[in-house]
Design goal:
Elements: H1 2-15, E1 31-32, E2 43-46, E3 50-54, E4 56-63, E5 68-84, E6 87-93, E7 106-112, E8 118-123, E9 131-137, E10 140-145, E11 154-159, E12 165-171, E13 177-186, E14 189-195, E15 200-204, E16 210-214, E17 222-224, E18 230-238, E19 242-253, E20 257-260
Antiparallel strand pairs: 1-19, 2-3, 3-4, 4-5, 5-6, 6-7, 7-8, 9-10, 10-11, 11-12, 13-14, 14-15, 15-16, 17-18, 18-19, 19-20
Length: about 270
């Protein structure tokens, strides 16, 4: 009997199809977000399946090819965003940006990344000149934002996972036009995109010690990728037509901070 059972088991093993191999996540590449939007791009973030775009008053979700999956209207002004544990965290200012008297109204709005349904709102009124960007590291959130003329340093406001204020960090960066717009932590560094002419990239270590100030434009979005590369956002606005967004592949560069990989540029939808 034992021999018969062994033979039967062997026949089942031979005749059974192999277990399916999970499909590999699509490789990141430079893409353009499908559609046009009333106001300009403020930031991007991504997971292994989608890219999320904040267009000031519209929150957009696309696949990795830029194909539109979902979009929802949101309050003006939604800024840069980050992704953590299946949720989107967006820096929002409902008041005045860059006001020396601090007449901002700073918040972080939270959305379900799968559905874009709003889940929560957290006051971050410590962000004195207006919340404009956000990054996440080790379960803590770091909010950046506006800056009045003449101030020669930038500020990063640290919160725990429940948005209890912990600390205000000072970056001795020199003045950047309207402060810091975008933020991401990757490759053991903070990467901060700033407006200006030219636009400026600030790079610090994990403790916000300045490691470099570069002429590179990631003021509309920057996010690190699992393979060590980055997506750096750009966009254009045309009167009567609307605003668009593109996320380009970039790599770290000792001389320029980040460098666009021109050979990888492909158009999305």
């Amino acid at each position: 009997m034992r021999t018969i059972l062994l033979i039967a088991a062997a026949l089942v093993a031979v005749s059974s199809p192999p277990a399916p191999v999970p499909a590999a996540a699509p490789a990141f590449r430079t893409v353009t977000c499908e559609g046009t939007y009333p106001q300009h791009l403020q930031g991007i973030c991504t997971d292994q399946a989608a890219i999320y775009w904040s267009f000031t008053t519209i929150l957009v979700k696309t696949d990795q090819n830029g194909k539109l999956l979902q979009k929802v209207p949101v309050a003006n002004h939604h800024g840069d965003l980050c992704l953590h544990a299946g949720k989107l965290y967006v820096a929002v200012n409902l008041g005045v940006f860059n006001d020396p008297q601090g007449n901002a109204d700073s918040w972080v709005y939270v959305y379900n990344a799968a559905t874009l349904q709003e889940l929560a709102r957290h006051k971050v009124q410590e962000v004195f000149h207006g919340a404009g960007g956000i990054g996440v590291r080790n379960g803590h959130f770091f909010v950046v934002g506006g800056l009045p003329e003449g101030v020669a340093e930038n500020y990063v406001y640290e919160y725990d996972g429940t948005f209890q204020f912990l600390k205000k960090h000072v970056i001795p960066s020199g003045h950047t036009h309207l402060g810091i717009q975008t933020a991401t932590f990757a490759a053991d560094r903070w990467w901060f995109g700033c407006y200006g002419d030219p636009q400026i990239l600030l790079v610090t270590d994990a403790d916000f010690q300045l490691r470099g100030r570069y002429k590179f434009d990631c003021s509309l979005g920057i996010v690190g990728l699992p393979d060590g590369r980055f997506l750096s956002a750009s966009g254009q606005c045309e009167p009567g037509h609307g605003c668009t967004g593109t996320a380009r592949i970039a790599v770290a560069d000792d001389q320029t901070g980040l460098r666009i990989q021109e050979k990888s540029v492909q158009q999305g939808r």
